[in-house]
Amino acid sequence: MLNFNNMKTIPGPSFLTLLSLTPLMRKDPIAFGAKMFEEYGRVIKFSVGPYKVIAMNEPEFHHWVLKENWENYIKGKAFEMMEPVMGKGLLTAPHEFWRQNRAIVQPNFRLARLPEYFQRMKESCESYFSDWDSKGIEAAQSFDMHQEMMNLTLSIITKTIFDLDFSTDPKVAVAIHDFMLGMEAQIFHLSRLQKYIPTPKNLRSLRALRYMDTIAYDLIARRRQDFDGRSDLISLLIQASSREGAKGITDKYLRDEVLNFLIAGHETTASSLSFCLFKLAENPEILVKVREEIDSVLGKREIEFSDLDKLIYLEMVINETLRILPPVWSISREAKLEDEIGGYRIPKGSIVTVAPYFIHHREDIWPEPQRFNPERFRAEEIKKRPKNTFHPFGLGPRTCIAETFARIEMKTFLALFLQKYDFQYDQRIPWELLATVTLRPKNGLFLKITPKT
Predict the structure, then answer these.
(1) What is the pTM (predicted TM-score) of this model?
(2) If DSSP codes are grouped into helix, strand and coil, which group holds residue 113?
């Protein structure tokens, strides 16, 4: 039994102050969060509509919520507005259902399968580059790299996880875009009735959801007819249901898993790659060092799976990108039971927010936090920092199941791209950062690309 006597009071804005800051919270939640932590300290509370929110910017508190006492911090209300579209896939499922299905899905991400996935990633990248070259890019053509990376990572995730390339259907990419905008509008709107209003955005989202359902159920029907001997995600789940008695593997659940991997499995990686290329374009001296490493490891030959571990500086560049611009910038949970964290009382039902973005930008942990400095990730520098200060893929049991997959995908693409192309940021088309469910470029991120000389 917890003793809540002498608990510390959690500070936060008054109702009127919060009301005056609501436009900022909706337009730029990162600026809102930074302002709150600056004014009220590293643990704050405030209300968003019917929800009581406690935001924490201490590494040990993140560790407690996501790892040490993770079973008390459920997806719950923090994800209930996503459930109509994302269902109960691995991203959103309750802990009990998640345990069973993660164990079934895990073989897709074991080390033994990574060389096979690397080869498919490499082939997808080379095919994509051939398409660019066939269009002719000698005149420093400007590409929206975020959209290009969305298309590429969609191809990679569907080929490797579903054994089917959804990127060949241009309507899929459009549907995912409209689907995400609709989901974000539901999450960030204070009224639950908003989704029922027939606005153009809601209607586009509804059409997108219907199309996504159609392609998901079509894939499921095909796999139910031919799942023996297959090792793709849907076949593994069907096999577990038919042979091992796994519960709840209905067509509706399989649909949820397809959408979870389609959305979460490629959009965040696409943003990370876009951000990384922008940071390299912005820091040419770092780009030179990356290319020197690639040339030293590969020379003029093609990359092989065994080369990835040798690209140490490239890994540091990826990590520094994920530190400054983590696509999964904020993580929320609901307290199932009353709890105490660091002397603060956490009431049952509170929404507890632990945002990697703000930990990644604490000046006492990361000096000059806005400066792009991959040297922070040298082994000796990592040892100097407190634990739990870098977690772009989450912490604890429910950390991203595809972290290693995503890191291999990013390394493979960047090594191939930097061998083949020169690029620079197209300053004629400024880009903005958009923080909603994930962190991504608001209206694209444009780079001028030419063949490397």
Answers:
(1) 0.93
(2) helix
